[in-house]
Amino acid sequence: MENLTNNIMHQFTLGNSILEISYIIASVLFIIGLKMLSHPDSARKGNLLAAFGMGLAIIATLLFHTKDGEPIGNHLLILIAIAIGTIIGWMIAVKVKMTAMPQLVSLFNGMGGAAAALISLMEFPHIESSLIAESGLANGHVLAILLGLLIGSVSFAGSMVAFLKLDSRLGDIKASWIRYINIVLLVVLIGFLIGIMIFGETPEASQIYLYLMFVIALVYGVLFVMPIGGADMPVVISLLNSFTGVAAAMGGFLYNNQAMLTGGILVGSAGTILTILMCNAMNRSLFNVIVGAFGGKAAGVSDAGGAIKEISLSDTAVLLSYSQKVVIVPGYGLAVAQAQHLCHDLDKLLEDKGVEVRYAIHPVAGRMPGHMNVLLAEADVPYDRLIEMDDINPDLPNTDVLIVIGANDVVNPAAEDDPSSPIYGMPIIKARDAKNVIVMKRGMGKGYAAIENNLFFADRTRMLFGDAKETLQKLLAEIKSL
Description:
By secondary structure, the chain is of the alpha/beta class. Helix content is 61%, strand content 7%.
């Protein structure tokens, strides 16, 4: 009997050691994978490494995790759930278009927040009595549960609203009263969190307040994102992503799971840093983005006046073919037209003619952080041709032709010239400094910030109207015929 007991204890210790080592390996793979994501050449490999680390953590948990000496049950149900999720995720990722990538990011991010919130709802009734014997619910374990519920619920609801707004199924609600309601709801949520911890004696007695907190957090998440839109959406997506990471980290604390904790911390910290960088790129504070979003705002609209000047395809082809330096400024319109591959064909054709072609990348171009980088990487545009705004601006006066394809607000001079403009103070790509500017647009519609763009009326600017994909196809044919 003693030998049997010793054997069981040995197996338990061995299994626990394997589990801990697996979590450490997974954490290291997360860190390496995140580092490799910083460069397009290694991003795919980094993503696979991080995914392998997550797979290792899941398998090790299923095989070796125990609670009170008992292994995990319901393996079949867990594997079925994993299979269903894998198939659905794979099908969505394969079919999604590049124009819908921001929606996909919001959807996946919301699922992460929902998972963290559900973990908290499930774990709260099962808090061990030993944890509340002396101080009631005022302990770190309960705090992790409540924070996971609060942050995860806000992230889920906010991400779903962002998804609907990005997919044009939901518009912005610009009402000053929303911000005051949000402040009240936030105070109430903090009050619930503190009240449950201080006055709660048992999980059973406090469960009704937990569910009230959950519902209020969902409402807050909806109202938090509802007024925000337009050029602020990349910042909001990044912020919600950091929320999901923090919520996941709370789950890591609950289960003493190093892999979950490391992954949550990495996502939370990376999302926070990216949010700060995006705010700096717009020359706005995070608070200003949240309570004073300019996306879709009509105030400050100014009409430049004057007449626009058009350019023909043949003249554009000649101008580009006999230039020395050409800069392309991509925007969301390029993604909508699915013209990134043709854009790359254009730069290769011009390179064959001895023209130096580069891309000017604005940090908030598109609908999510790094949208243009992802779009052009899909078309195999070399990374060294993608030049950040601060690096490309000083060289624009020496640029023979600057082509704006689907971008608007990120090249709008109102950010520098018009103090009444909602985007005043936002750093822009200084397109007007180039010797010649060609703007490809469907028409004279305003950008996502809904304000007039004085660049279109500048002396050096010529408009080339039409769908970007069709226009690029015709332009390629014109250049080849020269």
